[in-house]
Model the fold of this input.
Amino acid sequence: MTIDNVMLTVNRVPEILVNTGTDSVALGGILLTAIVVVSGTIITGFQFSRTIKSQERLASQNAEQIRDQSRSQNLAKNRQEWINSLRSEVAKFLSVVHEIYNLSGDIKDPKIRGVTEPEILKSWEKHHAKSDKFYSFLATARFHVSNIQMHLNPAEPETKSLEDAMTRLIEAAYANKPIYDGSVEVIDVSRRILKSEWERVKEMI
Done:
C-alpha cells in the first residue's frame, strides 16, 4: 500500500479563545478583598498610633510622678536635716548657758584672796582667767542664739516665744540667778517647734 504525499495549505491562523472564567462576581470579590486589606491596614495603623500616644502619656505621667516623689523626698530630707540642726543648736545653747551660770558667781564676786603680794597676784590671775572664760561663753551663747534665729521664721509666734525664753535664760545665768525654770521653758518651746516641723516632714514622705 502506497501513501502519497499530501500538501496542506493554511490560509489563516485560527483564533484560539481561552475562557478564564473571570466574571463580575470574581472582580467584585477581588475588589472587596482589597478594600478589607486596606481598611485593616488603616485601622491597625490608627490603633498602633493610639497605643503609642497612650504609652507616651503614661510614660510622661510616670516621669512626673517620679519627679514629684523625688522632690518630696529631697524636701523631707532637707527638713529633717533642719530639725537635727536646730535641735543641736538648742542643746549647745543650753550647755553654754550652764557654763555661764557656773562662772557668774565668781565673776560678780572676784573673791581675791592672799596675804602676800604674789598670792594676791595669783588670785587676780585666776579671776581674770575665769572672767575670760565667762565672757567667751557669753559670746558663744549669743552665737547660738543667732544660729537658732536663722533657723526660724520670725513671723511665727513660737519663734518669738523661743527668742524671749533664751534672752531671759541668758540674763538669769549672767546674774547668777536660778536657771532651771528658764531652761525648761526653752526646751518646751523648742519641742513644740520641732514637733510641728516633724509633722510636716511626715506629710512629705
Notes: Residues 83-204 form one domain. The first helix runs from residue 24 to 108.
